[in-house]
Each structure stands twice: as structure tokens, then as C-alpha cells.
Amino acid sequence: MEIRTLRAFAEVVRQGGFSRAAKTLFATQSTVSKAVRQLEDELGVRLLERVGHHSRLTEAGEIVFHRATAILAEGDDLRSELAEVRGLKRGTLRLGLPPIGSNTVFAPWFATYRSRYPGVEIKLVEHGSKRLEEMVLAGELDFAATLLPVGSEFEWQEVCREPIDVLLAADHPLAQRPRLTFDALAGMPFILYGEDFALSSIILKACREGGFTPKVATQSSQVDLVIELVAAKLGIALLPRSLAEQCPHPLTKRVAIDHPEIHWHRGLVWRRGGYLSHAAQAWLSLAGSPEVLQPSAIR
């Protein structure tokens, strides 16, 4: 079993087909197809079912893909360690950030890191927290910013913790109250975030604990649009306090939630037992530095 055939197979799965995988691997489509066939012949099982222009994993393929990603991640770790032993002067930091709220904490972090380590290339990926966690476990990212707590397969470092408030139209009957309990929101239409965003899971869990299932008016991953929809009286939204304060709107009102309190607890996660390059360790060392701390990070 060769690394090149495992990498070709894994890339076909990740990209959803042979053509895209070939572009990612800088190879021809026939070369990628041949590598996957070679792997199937060697293992004696069919790994992919061809459906039109797309491919989907067989039951055996699921098992092999899981093992292949782990093997490839270990191989990448090995190459990183050997490169640094040889005195690599330039490095690469592979970082995943969710599109919601990352600017409030990580923009100063980027500026400080760049000023200290100008030779390090920063490869930034933006996805929802769940997808970013999968990429960390697959060895595709050094770190991901996500919501805590996380599973035992990760190591993590806290970045910040802050309350989540409810945003209502300014003329809403409850908008003048200083604080609200969560069960007071039952029956109102909610504007939620996409299913890939961990923030939606926090909100839905709080609703269940409050004894109700929210009526969902719509979903969006754009904070500005969520706020405008609240202003247009389409529904209510729950926002981390720093985001609500950063984007004030004259037609909305932010109200604190008294009971139960829910929080946006963010951290950096990495694969437990995985190798962290010097570039990655340098990024991690900035956590808690006065140069990158923001008001939202110390609440």
C-alpha cells in the first residue's frame, strides 16, 4: 500500500470526484483513477461507487477513508518534524476560523503574529465550527477556532468567554426590560445560523432546556443580515454580546438573558497527540498576550 494511492483516494472523497481531485493533486484525471483502482485491487474491495460524474463511498470505502486520513496526517507530521530538524527557516500556519465573530478576537492576533514572524505563510480556511473540527482531525489544519467544550480527541486552549444576548426589534413589547428569562422567548420566531455553526447548537440546546422548540423564521451565516432581519421584525436573534455591541442598529434592542445564562465560549483546538510546528507553537503562545487581548476576550 503506497502513500500516493491513499492520498489520491482521500482527495477524491474530499473533492467529491476525480476531476477536482486531479486539479488539487496537480495530476491528470487518468493518473488519479489509476491510483484508486490500484488501491482497490490491492485491498480486494470496491471503495467507490461511480454515480454519473460523482463518486460515493462504499461501506469498505468508509473504513479505508477513515484510516487513510489518519495515516496521511501522521505522514504530514513526520515531514514537518524532519523539515524543522533540517533547519527550515520559513514555515506555514494552517488555521481555520468560523465566519461569525472571528474579527473581534483574531484580527489583532494576526497583526501581532505577522509583525513577529513575517516569513511564515498563513493559510486561512473559513468554515463552520463542525467542519473545521473535522479538518483538524484529518490533519488538514494546525488549529481551528471553535466553541468549547470539545471531545477528548482534541487538545484546546481557551480564547474567550462572553454572554449571549437576545436581539429584538426596538418596539417589541419585551425590548424595554433590562433582562429576560429564556422561557420568555418561547413562541417567538427565531433567526438562527446554519446547521454547520456550533452557535446554533448552543441556542437550540438552551431552548430545549427552557422547555420549548423554537419556531425558526429563517437561517443565515451573515451577522449583518441577521441584525437587519431583526430590525425588519422577521424574528428575534441571539448574538454574542461583543457582536451585538459591535454592530448597533437603531431599530433593534439588545437585552441580557438572566436564566439560564448561555455563553459563547471559544477556544483554539488541535489534534490530541498531533505534532505542532514551530509556526503553530508560536501562534499558540500569543494566547493571552496583552497585544492581542480584546475587551470581549476578558469578560
Task: Offer a quick outline of the entry.
By secondary structure, the protein is α/β, with parallel strands linked by helices.
Provide an overview of this structure.
- With 299 residues, the protein is of the alpha/beta class.
- The protein folds into 3 domains: 3-74, Orthogonal Bundle (Arc Repressor Mutant, subunit A), CATH 1.10.10; 92-159 and 265-298, D-Maltodextrin-Binding Protein, domain 2; 160-264, D-Maltodextrin-Binding Protein, domain 2, CATH 3.40.190.290.
- The chain is built from 10 helices and 12 strands.
- The strands form 3 sheets. Strands 3, 4, 5, 6, 7, 10, 11 and 12 form an 8-stranded mixed β-sheet that branches. Strands 1-2 form a two-stranded antiparallel ribbon. A two-stranded parallel ribbon has the order 8-9.
Biggest sheet: strands, sense, closure? 8 strands, mixed
First-to-last CA distance: 52 Å
CATH architecture label of the largest domain: 3-Layer(aba) Sandwich
What does the radius of gyration come to?
23 Å
Please report which band the strand proportion falls in: under 5%, 5-15%, 15-25%, 25-35%, 35-45% or over 45%: 15-25%
Strand tally is: 12
CATH class of the largest domain: Alpha Beta
The structural class is alpha/beta
Total domain count:
3
DSSP helix count?
A: 10
